[in-house]
Amino acid sequence: MSRIAAIKPFGQRIWLDNLSRGLLKSGELARLIQEDDIAGVTSNPAIFYKSISSDPLYTGDLAELKKQDLTAEQRYEALVVPDIQATCDLTAPLYRDTKGLDGYVSLEVSPHLANDAQGTIDNAKRLWAAINRPNAMIKVPATSAGVIAFEELIASGINVNITLMFNLVHVDDVLNAYIRGLEARIAAGQPVDHVRAVASVFLSRVDTLIDKQLEAIGSAEAKALQGKVAISFVKVAYQHYKKLFHGSRFADLKAKGAHPQRLLWASTGTKNAAFRDTMYVEELIGPETVNTVPDATLDAFRDHGVAADKLETNTEAAVEVMAQLRKLGINYNLAGEQLQVDGLKLFDEAFDKLLDLTK
Question: According to its UniProt record, which residues of this chain constitute the active site (predicted)?
Answer without folding.
Answer: 139 (schiff-base intermediate with substrate)
